[in-house]
Amino acid sequence: MKVLVSGASIAGPTLAYWLNRYGFDVTVVERSPALRKAGGHAVDLFKPAMDIAEKMGVLAEVEAKATGTDVIEAYHEGRDRRYVIEIGRLMSAVSDRHVEIMRDDLSQILYDACRDHVDFRFGESITQIAEVAEGVDVAFERGSSQRFDLVIGADGLHSNVRRLVFGPESEFATWIGAYLAVASVPNYLELRDRMVVTCGVDRMAGLYSGAQMDDARAVFMFRPSQELTYDHRDVAAQKLLLRKVFDGFGSRVTRLLDEAERADAFYLDSITQLRMDSWSRGRTSLVGDAGYCPGPAVGGSTSLAVVGAYVLAGELAAVDGDHTRAFAAYEGAMVDYVVRSRDFANGAAKRLLPRNRMGVWAFIGTGLLVGHLPVAVTRALTKVTPRTVRLHDSVIVQDYRRGR
């Protein structure tokens, strides 16, 4: 059975690995001319995704590439007093198994796990998808048209497959009130195991690096009074917008802005959720951010994408590729996890970007409190509400059959 997957970041290679393992003939197309190495940012893998990484035999590689960020040095806007938050202790309370890893590193590991058995076509994109009685006819930007049995969109928040099959992004996207910007910059503070962050009302800016990195990442989050209009292709204008938003935020952030302005790798986008009644239509389905992005940086979307890809492949294998049954089972298995991730993301965005100074104090104070409590105590407290604080660990990853 021939399956076309669009996207070679996180969900795409994970799905390709498992489909190939179950005996499907898999092709992956990726618009980028090579595996994306655009700087990227740190992402989290929680227990269910870590369990899947172990099943794939890549757990050692994932753990070896961990950023090692265990401490946050937090400052209030306009103040020089430093507050030290032990993020490692906080994350151990949230999840029994967790790794923070750079997105580019994770993508490379997942790609390497299946590259020898899957047909990857870089520098290629889909221009048309037409379902016929015998399958799906797909037209490509560069190559000739080809017929597949199934098409899966794993091409991120701004999914091309979703646009072609389900309609424009505006019909499904919901802005949750914030923006995120990330730039690859020199590690001028010589950071290795910590992040330095300045917190203010509706704004946050920081710098972090990792044990495996030569450079660093400048990260900015902000909440404007209304949704912004800007050219997604005009990076210079985006950098100017960022400087205006963080004007007067202090000397630490001024240096960050200066470095971000010089950066070649720069990303700015809204923190947006996708809300769809169904992620499948006919012989086409969506996985990861393409179908149910809970919000970049606030909703655990990377773990959600890994689990979704694993479940979709497993459900297809369980019914020998009967997409009608498999897609329904996949959506049924994932919907609760998706909805709870959305709810968590909404709350996280509000906590990370408080509306007033009291909220800023509460945000830093909570981190300090958790960092000073014994891990056993914090775990006990978080387990009182496992479906919220420990929402990832509450997800049970079932074992699908190993092959056809």
**CATH superfamily membership of the domain at 2-172 and 273-382, which one?**
FAD/NAD(P)-binding domain
Strand content: 25-35%
CATH topology of the domain at 2-172 and 273-382: FAD/NAD(P)-binding domain
CATH class of the domain at 2-172 and 273-382: Alpha Beta
Helix content: 25-40%
Identify the CATH architecture of the domain at 2-172 and 273-382.
Answer: 3-Layer(bba) Sandwich
Based on Cα principal axes, name the global outline.
globular
Distance between the termini: 11 Å
Structural class: alpha/beta
Nearest-integer average pLDDT: 91
Q: Total number of β-strand segments?
A: 18
Major beta sheet summary = 7 strands, mixed
Total of helices: 13
Radius of gyration: 21 Å
For the biggest β-sheet, the strand order reads 5-4-13-14-15-12-16
Low-confidence stretches: 377-382
Topology record:
Blueprint: E1 2-6, H1 11-21, E2 25-30, E3 42-45, H2 47-55, H3 59-64, E4 71-76, E5 83-86, H4 87-94, E6 99-102, H5 103-114, E7 119-122, E8 126-132, E9 135-140, E10 146-148, E11 150-153, H6 160-165, E12 173-186, E13 194-200, E14 203-208, E15 215-222, H7 235-245, H8 251-262, E16 266-274, E17 280-281, E18 284-286, H9 289-292, H10 301-318, H11 323-352, H12 357-372, H13 375-382
Parallel strand pairs: 1-2, 1-11, 2-7, 4-13, 11-18
Antiparallel strand pairs: 3-6, 4-5, 8-9, 9-10, 12-15, 12-16, 13-14, 14-15, 17-18
Helix pairs in contact: 1-5, 1-10, 2-10, 4-13, 7-8, 10-11
